[in-house]
């Protein structure tokens, strides 16, 4: 997995040849976009975005965590990106995320509402980096405990808000 991430970063760096700058035109591309990144809630993920209208993009991401790092966890997210009309590299991203995890003790499904703000940075004409941060609200936590299970992690905390952050590389198609 580590080699895959390093290879992806290398490809984006080679493809860019430009200096990092604020992406003032990202909201106006009439295109599709593929991305790969890391963050919380989606973990390591790949995604697809579609430009629905001027300044509005729909995004779908699927993510996972390797078994060696944590319990077997997958995530699926749907987001809507609203780009600022004057500062076109700034956006607000509300969305929903479903996390599915399974360990020796339990099988759980979590539903989240996400609200994040971010900025896009261009590396080249078709590639860039996006960084966003915000808050995640736990809407539901369904846990199916297996025999001899410990208390679920989220029940111990009794907290419904968690910080969220994402760093992703994108390629416009």
SSE order and pairing:
Layout: H1 2-16, E1 21-22, E2 32-40, E3 43-53, E4 56-65, E5 72-83, E6 90-102, E7 106-122, E8 127-145, H2 153-157, E9 161-172
Antiparallel strand pairs: 1-7, 2-3, 2-9, 3-4, 4-5, 5-6, 6-7, 7-8, 8-9
What can you tell me about this protein's structure?
With 173 residues, the protein is mainly beta. The protein has a single domain, classed as Porin (Beta Barrel), CATH 2.40.160. Helix content is 12%, strand content 61%. The chain is built from 2 helices and 9 strands; from the N terminus they run αββββββββαβ. Strands 2-3-4-5-6-7-8-9 form an 8-stranded antiparallel barrel. The radius of gyration is 17 Å and the shape is elongated. The protein starts with a helix and ends with a strand. The N terminus is likely disordered.
Number of domains: 1
Distance from N terminus to C terminus (CA atoms, Å) equals 25 Å
Count of extended strands: 9
Count of alpha/pi helices: 2
Main sheet attributes: strand count, strand direction, barrel closure: 8 strands, antiparallel, barrel
Reported CATH architecture = Beta Barrel
Helix share bin = 10-25%
Summarize this structure as a short list of keywords or feature phrases:
mainly beta, elongated, 173 residues, Porin
Brief characterization of the structure:
With 173 residues, the protein is mostly beta strands. Helices cover 12% and strands 61% of the residues. The protein contains two helices and nine strands, in the order H-E-E-E-E-E-E-E-E-H-E.
């Amino acid at each position: 997995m580590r080699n895959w991430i390093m290879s992806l970063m290398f490809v984006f760096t080679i493809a860019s040849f430009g200096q990092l700058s604020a992406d003032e035109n990202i909201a106006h591309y009439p295109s599709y976009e593929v991305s790969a990144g890391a963050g919380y809630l989606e973990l390591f993920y790949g995604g697809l975005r579609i430009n629905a209208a001027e300044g509005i993009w729909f995004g779908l991401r699927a993510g996972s965590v390797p078994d060696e790092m944590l319990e077997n966890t997958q995530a699926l997210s749907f987001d809507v990106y609203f780009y600022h009309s004057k500062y076109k590299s700034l956006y607000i991203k509300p969305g929903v995320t479903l996390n599915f995890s399974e360990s020796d003790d339990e099988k759980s499904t979590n539903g989240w509402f996400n609200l994040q703000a971010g900025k896009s940075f261009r590396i080249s004409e078709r590639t860039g980096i996006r960084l966003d941060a915000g808050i995640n609200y736990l809407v539901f936590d369904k846990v199916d405990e297996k025999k001899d299970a410990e208390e679920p992690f989220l029940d111990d905390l009794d907290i419904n808000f968690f910080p969220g952050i994402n760093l992703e590389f994108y390629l416009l198609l």
